[in-house]
């Protein structure tokens, strides 16, 4: 009997000593995700992705906050976020440590490629503005600082011999606020990088007649010299009310980056959740419609996280 009691006490002691490790194994995982400015496609898509992760990976919570292409990459690099939306052109600059990044973003890794983005330049039809050069002396909304679209806006002005100093006002505001400024006549140009049709532009077009500005081939080539990640894109006629012509512009890809510090099994499961719920995400952003696992695994020049790489290799889309 005494021996039995000793054995029981010994077993109880082992369980007691192991309890901290059991607790650690059962700890919740709290992830931080950075998306985009209010009024853009990244906010609702980020919310949908967060919901899927929380639903399908027990014990995992995801808090979502606004951000921007370059700001998100910096956020993941500095540990302020675990997951972030990025734009292929600027994320590759980060990996290489090129301007505007101060050093290579070694903590940033690829999770999944998502869909194409379009750089869009919107003016009111009665403004008399017919090319980016005509924005001189006008008020513009190029997006919040630290966003890929905002950097591209500066570069588009640059190839036309302009800078922010040539504008009467530069409003670094959200998409929603930019539309309000355009409607009130406090801004004459609205420049952004997002999907088509952009909900904010549709909002503007409901009360104002708009015009989209195109980029000629030679200007597109100049931009591509600045960043090889810029791709020629066409916004088809009829994408927006009253815009009955094709608009020639440039764009890049939206993708998801994650911290290199996240555990491989967790990233594997997140990648699996994304892959198995593309149709659900397409209900939020139509550009996701028809996206396959092979598309998610597209190499855009940012190293894959081992967890994502393991999943893609199991699916046979990466060798």
Notes on the protein architecture:
By secondary structure, this protein is an alpha/beta fold. The protein has two domains: 28-115 and 254-314, 3-Layer(aba) Sandwich (D-Maltodextrin-Binding Protein, domain 2), CATH 3.40.190.10; 117-252, D-Maltodextrin-Binding Protein, domain 2 (3-Layer(aba) Sandwich), CATH 3.40.190.10. The protein has helices spanning 2-25, 42-56, 69-77, 88-96, 148-159, 175-184, 199-205, 217-226, 264-276, 278-282, 293-296, 306-314, and strands spanning 29-34, 60-65, 83-87, 108-124, 139-141, 169-170, 189-194, 210-212, 231-235, 247-259. Strands 1, 2, 3, 4, 5, 6, 7, 8, 9 and 10 form a ten-stranded mixed beta sheet that branches. Helix 2 (42-56) links the parallel strand 1 and strand 2. Residues 6-26 have low confidence and may be disordered.
Question: Main attributes?
Answer:
single chain; 319 residues; alpha/beta; D-Maltodextrin-Binding Protein, domain 2; ten-stranded mixed sheet; 10 strands; 40% helix; globular
Topology readout:
Layout: H1 2-25, E1 29-34, H2 42-56, E2 60-65, H3 69-77, E3 83-87, H4 88-96, E4 108-124, E5 139-141, H5 148-159, E6 169-170, H6 175-184, E7 189-194, H7 199-205, E8 210-212, H8 217-226, E9 231-235, E10 247-259, H9 264-276, H10 278-282, H11 293-296, H12 306-314
Parallel strand pairs: 1-2, 1-3, 5-6, 5-7
Antiparallel strand pairs: 3-10, 4-7, 4-8, 4-10, 9-10
Helix pairs in contact: 6-7, 9-12
Q: What is the element string, with H for helices and E for strands?
A: HEHEHEHEEHEHEHEHEEHHHH
Work out the helix count: 12
Percent in strands = 15-25%
CATH topology assignment of the largest domain: D-Maltodextrin-Binding Protein, domain 2
Count of all domains: 2
Instruction: Tell me the CATH architecture of the largest domain.
Output: 3-Layer(aba) Sandwich
Mean pLDDT: 90
């Amino acid at each position: 009997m005494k021996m039995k009691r000793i054995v029981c006490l010994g077993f109880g002691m082992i369980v007691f000593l192991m309890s901290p490790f059991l607790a650690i194994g059962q700890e919740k995982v709290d992830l931080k995700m950075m998306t985009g400015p209010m009024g853009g496609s990244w906010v609702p898509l980020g919310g949908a992705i967060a919901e899927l992760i929380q639903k399908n990976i027990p014990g995992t919570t995801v808090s979502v906050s606004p951000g921007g292409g370059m700001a998100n990459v910096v956020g993941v690099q500095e540990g302020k976020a675990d997951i972030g939306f990025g734009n292929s052109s600027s994320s590759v600059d980060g990996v290489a440590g090129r301007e505007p990044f101060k050093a290579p973003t070694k903590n940033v890794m690829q999770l999944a490629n998502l869909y194409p983005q379009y750089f869009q330049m919107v003016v009111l039809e009665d403004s008399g503005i017919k090319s980016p050069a005509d924005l001189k002396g006008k008020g513009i909304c190029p997006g919040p600082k630290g966003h890929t679209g905002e950097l591209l806006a500066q570069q588009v002005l640059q190839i036309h011999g302009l800078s922010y100093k040539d504008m009467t006002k530069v409003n670094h505001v959200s998409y929603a606020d930019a539309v309000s400024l355009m409607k009130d006549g406090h801004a004459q140009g609205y420049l952004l990088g997002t999907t088509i049709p952009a909900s904010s532009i549709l909002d503007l077009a409901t009360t104002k007649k708009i015009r989209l500005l195109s980029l000629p081939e030679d200007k597109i080539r100049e931009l591509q010299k600045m960043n090889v990640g810029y791709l020629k894109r066409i916004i088809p006629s009829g994408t927006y009310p009253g815009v009955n012509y094709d608009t020639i512009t440039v764009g890049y890809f939206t993708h998801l980056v994650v911290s290199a510090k996240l555990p491989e099994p967790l990233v594997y499961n997140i990648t699996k959740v994304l892959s198995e719920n593309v149709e659900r995400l397409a209900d939020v952003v139509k550009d996701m419609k028809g996206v396959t696992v092979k598309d998610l695994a597209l190499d855009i020049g940012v190293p894959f996280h081992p967890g994502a790489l393991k999943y893609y290799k199991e699916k046979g889309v990466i060798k």
